[in-house]
Predict the structure.
Amino acid sequence: MIMRPELNDAEKQLVAALRSGKYVQGQHCLRKGDTYCCLGVACDIFKQEEWIRLSQAVFQIEENKMVLPDRIVNILNWKHWQGSMVFYGFNGVIIRHFLSELNDAGLTFGQIADIIEAGMMEHQQDAI
């Protein structure tokens, strides 16, 4: 039996939001119009202030943040602002993938929620 790490409360909230159907998926920025990348969904559910409009369609969260803010990275207890996962390849090679790149490559919110739920995220206390 494979033991999966327990999700923290923030990860559970993010998984629920990704599966809720409330958000329309987009790519290449946290929020563009009414579309969000998976990290933009995290920004939306944990934001303390409103989105800042940069242009007719592009928004940022918090001042000067076009990426997942450190405050939200800390809420999720993630190690990296892009949401990283680590795999071990041949000969001990460490391979890192990021939720942002998987989102932009076309994985659905449901598939990204599955990754988070499977306990594959790299957390701040992880040694790698």
